[in-house]
Amino acid sequence: MIRVLVADDQPLVRAGLTALVNLEPDLEVVGEAGDGVAALAMARELRPDVVCLDIRMPGLDGIAVARELCGPDVEAPIPVLVLTTFDLDDYVFSALEAGVSGFLLKDAEPETITAAIRHVAAGNGTIDQSLTRRILGEFVRRRSLQPVSASHRSEVLTGREQEILQLLAQGMSNDEIARALVIEVSTVKSHLARMLPKIGVRSRLQAVVWAYQNRFVDLPDAR
């Protein structure tokens, strides 16, 4: 059972999301919070598998809560899926930098939201498809990062890890990567488990951003 904490300052939205999650046989809402302070306290107490977090909330906004739950300096991070009505670029950039594992708009289809919760719980990142190309391209351009040169890539990642990262950045699942490389899914998972700490990230989504930052794959067309 995947344990979910729902945090949203609008009671109707919170109730609707809770009902949606509880309809799924493998998902369970273990707590609800109406503001950022309560969301942070409940997440630390309940240790859910996923926190579904709104951005605009009283007390602490969702970005501040996310930094406390899954930021770079958090020793035992709790995966966060941001659900918001706002698709402003700065919100998405801040959410990614805060370490969130996923970002969806609230008007996403119900099955998309529940699938995203499962993806995040499994350690897989997700981002609203309407935002992906624009956001990744602009996010990489805004960040100041010294790229890893081609001559030094082999010092960071093995050849197989580079292949997996390139396919991951194309949006492939573990099963699809395994089929493309003719290897077992368990092998893909093992490579990912070793690769993420090497590049200093915690999620597949952050690995994809890192891949674009370091030109492992071409920047997406942001139009």
Automatic annotation (TrEMBL):
SUPFAM superfamilies: C-terminal effector domain of the bipartite response regulators, CheY-like. InterPro entries: CheY-like_superfamily, NreC/VraR/RcsB-like_REC, Sig_transdc_resp-reg_C-effctor, Sig_transdc_resp-reg_receiver, Tscrpt_reg_LuxR_C, WalR-like. Signal peptide: none annotated. The keyword Transcription applies. It comes from Agromyces larvae. Transmembrane segments: none annotated. This is Response regulator transcription factor. Residues 150-215 form the HTH luxR-type domain. PANTHER family: TRANSCRIPTIONAL REGULATORY PROTEIN NARL-RELATED, TWO-COMPONENT RESPONSE REGULATOR. It comes from the Bacteria. The modification 4-aspartylphosphate is found at residue 54. The keyword Cytoplasm does not apply. Keywords: DNA-binding, Phosphoprotein, Transcription, Transcription regulation. Pfam families: GerE, Response_reg. Residues 3-121 form the Response regulatory domain. SMART domains: HTH_LUXR, REC. CDD domains: LuxR_C_like, REC_NarL-like.
